[in-house]
Amino acid sequence: MDEELKLVFPTEEYKEEIMDLREEYLKNGESKINGGAGLEKANDINNWLKDVTEDRNREYPDHSNRYPASIYLAVRKEDGKIIGIIQIRHELYNFKLYSHGGHIGNSVRPTERNKGYGTKMISLALKKAKELGIGNVLMVCYKDNIASARSIIKNGGVLENEVERDSKIDQRYWITLKKRYSDGRNKKNDILEKEHKCYRFVEDDFKGDISLLTIKKVRKEWRIDEEQRCILADNYKWLQIYPEGKHYCITAMIDDKDNIVEWYFDIARELGNEDGIPYEDDLYLDVVIVPDGRIHLLDEDELEDAYNKKEVNKKDYDMAYKTANMIMEKAKEKDTVEKLTVFTKKYLNKLMTL
Prior knowledge:
about 350 residues, alpha+beta, Aminopeptidase, FomD barrel-like fold, 2 domains, eight-stranded antiparallel β-sheet, four-stranded antiparallel β-sheet, about 35% strand
C-alpha cells in the first residue's frame, strides 16, 4: 500500500541518509541516479540540497540546465529508511524532457528493489503532480527495464510510442490525471452526501452508459454566470450521459424542483468504465447549453496552456475543437433544446425507476 511510504523533501535532517543512499548507488556500479537531480555527481551534499531547493522555487530553466522541479525522498514509515528518490519536473521544458525525460524520474535503491516500492513511489508522486496542476504525466523508461514499465502501467500508463536513443529503445507512457468519474468521487470535498446509480442502455436513440448522481447535501452551492445560476445545491440531480464512441459526455443538471438548469458537455479524450463506474478523460474544453438557448464555450485557456506545456498533443488539441464546434453548431438548431429536454426527462425517469 502507498501508506507504507511517505514522500519528504530533502533537508539537512536527512543529510547523512542521502549520502548513504548515494554511496549505495555508486557501489552498485550505477553512474546515473534516475530522479536524483544530479545526486550522483554531488560530492558536496550541501550544494545539492541548495540546488534542489532552488529548483523547487524557480519559475524558469536557467543557463546551467536546471529547471523547475520538485524532488522527494521516498521514506519507509516503519523504520524511516530512504527507499528511493523521485523527481517531478513541473513542465516538459525542452525536447530532451519531452522525448526522453518525462515529468517523473525515479529510482529505488539497489537493496530495496523487486519489492513493489517503485509502483508505490509513482502513485504518491502522481498525487503531487496533480497538486502542481499537471493534467497528463509523461513517464519514460528503457524497453528492457521491465520492472519500471510494469510500475508505470500499474499506475495507468498508456504506451504512446517507442524512440531509439543511444542504441536503446525508450518507451514513452502517458498517465492521465484528468479522469472524472460519474459517482462524484472527484468532488468529494464539495458533495457531502450522495447516491449514485448507473445503467447501460442499448436503444434506438442511445447506446452507452447513463448514471444518476443524486446530491443530497453539499458544502456550499455553486453559482455561475451573471444571473448566479445555481448548478449544485442540496437535492440536485446530475444525469450523466456517456454515448458510446463519442468524444464528449453530457451532464444534465437538474434542480430541487426538477427543472433542467443546463446541459454541460465535457470534451473527452476518451470515455470509459472502471468497475461499473463510467468516466471521461477530460480534454479541458467544455460547451454549455442553457434551456433559454444560450451557448457557452469554456476553458479554452486551459486547453491552450496544456498544449503549450506539451501535455496535450496536436491531434487531441484539434479533436477537442472539432468536437466542441460540432456540438455548438448542433446547438444552434432551433429544436435542439427541445430534443435535449425530451431525452433528459426520458432517461431520468428510467434511472429513477430502476
